[in-house]
Structure formats: C-alpha cells, structure tokens
Amino acid sequence: MIQTVNLGSQGLETSRQGLGCMGMSEFYGDADENESIATIQRALELGVTLLDTSDIYGPFTNERLVGRAIAGRRDGVVLATKFGIVRDEDGTRRGIDGRPDYVRRACEASLQRLGIDHIDLYYQHRVDPDTPIEETVGAMGELVSEGKVRYLGLSEAMPETIRRAHATHPISALQTEYSLWSREVEAEILPTIRELGIGLVPYAPLGRGFLTGRYRSADTVGEGDFRRSDPRFSRDHMDRNLAIVEAVEALAENKGASAAQLALAWVHHQDQTFVPIPGTTTRRHLETNVAALDVELTGDELERLSAIGTASGNRYGDMSTVNR
Predict the structure, then answer these.
(1) H or E element at residue 236
(2) pTM of whole model > 0.70?
(3) Which residues neighbour 288 within 8 Å (Cβ) at sequence distance 6 or greater?
(4) Which of 52, 210, 292, 298 sits between 20 and 30 A of 249, alpha carbons compared?
(5) What is the pLDDT of residues 283-301, one digit of tens each?
C-alpha cells in the first residue's frame, strides 16, 4: 500500500502520490471515458487517495466524471477541486474571479457536479488581482466553518500572497508546477511554505508528458492538444529540451526504470512530504507512475539528475495569470 503523508500542518492526510484527472476531459486530446473511470478506480485500489480536478476542466465535465468514478467509494478519496478561472459552457474564458459571492456559488456548483456533500481540499485556481486575497480566503474559510470544505489550498500563488492568505485562514497546500526541469519554486516559494507549514502538490511533474520521452518533435503533438501552444514543445525550444530528456533516459536505462519513473522519483526525493499529481488517462500509465514510488535514487544519481538543467521556454504561452 502506498505510504500516506501529512499534506501541510492542518491535519490533511493523503497518499504520497495523487492522480491529476484534467486530461480525462480536456487539453491533452481525446480520452476514453470508460478507461478514465477505470483508471480512477484502479488508482484507489492501489492506494492513491488524492484525486485532483477543477470546475473548468471540460469545462465542468471533469468533476462529473470524477463524481461517477468515486460513487460508492467516497470514504477512500481525498477529493481536491478548484475555482476561480471563469469559463462558459462552450469553453470561452471570462477571466478570473475571487469575489466572495463567486466563491460560494462555485463551491455549491462543484458539490452538485461531484455528487458529494463536502470537498476535502478546495483551491483557488488562480489569484484574482482585482479582489484582495483576504476577501477570497475569508469566504473559503466560511465554507470550512459550514462543513462544505475541509481544507484550503492555493494554486500558482507567490510568497506575499501565500502569507496574506495563510494569515486569514490556515492554508494546507500550494499547488504549482514543479519537476526536474521546472524548478522556479525553489528560490522563494518553497522556503515560504516550509516556514508556514504548507504542503506542496506539484502538478505537471512529468513536464506535461515531455519527460516521458514520448515527444520527439513539435509535430508529435496532436490537433486539439493545448501543448501545441506550449513554448517548451515548440520548434524554438525542442532541441534544448530533448537534450534533457535524453539525459534522463540514459540514466533511467542504467537504473532499469523508465524516464517517467526517474523524473517522478526525483520529485519524491526532494521532500518526503511532496505529493505530485501526475495525470494520465490509462491504467497502464497509472501503474507505471505509481511504481516510481519504489525507485530509490542515490545521492550521486540525484546530483546527476539535478545537473541536467531546466527547460528552455516559458511554462505557458501567456504567463499573465501565474506568479501572483
């Protein structure tokens, strides 16, 4: 059974690795719904308790899918969802909203779609620059008092914002991108959350799939896949980033593991309490990712991986909604 850890210092316990469900509904091309549900249920069988979704994935359809998958299994799930990025049913983006009345409406809608009576970990998906963080987190705290939410989280927030939020209501987790090739959080964010007793949930721990070695050219990314607009998958940065992957693959071959497993193991070895949420839509890849928990890295191997370097190119084509 997968080890459990304390995510933050507020009492939230979860498996040491979670499952990102976003790609089951959108962004990474088509996915088979039945296989996605089977993947979620297999994750629970393996001891993966943290499931990560958001109201905007789909939009709105991913929460319904997760809700169907966990029906009758609620007691074994730590369910995380998010609010704050506003989209219409047709997918049109309407900006970011952190106003208290929106927080409440979004929570009620998520509860209904998920078919549950409380959310275990409720994140503000992106910080609203037009609403003081104290007002947003204050409204989130009211949901905790009412029993609709158990613990609070932030996504893509900077140290000052994290401090202000945590002073308003205890924050249990920060979700942000962190991987072997994306280490921006190490300078200021990690010291801040460690000081405050906030856990880290790294998303895209496999570089949105790049670190698996699957993508060898910009043409590998299919139509309808948002990675076609990701700078790190573009022709301008492909050669530099492929060199990172090839270095990971060479080390993985010597280790008898896959590149994906080595990249995930590197994240796990940075801190025993980090809970990465690699996403997948198939049971086969899920099982490969879970097996990364058994990959032991020596000090020398960790140094060699860390020395490989970080990615070329921004994390998003538009960085305006992160780092707030």
Answers:
(1) helix 235-255
(2) yes
(3) 258, 260, 261
(4) 52
(5) 999 999 999 999 999 999 9
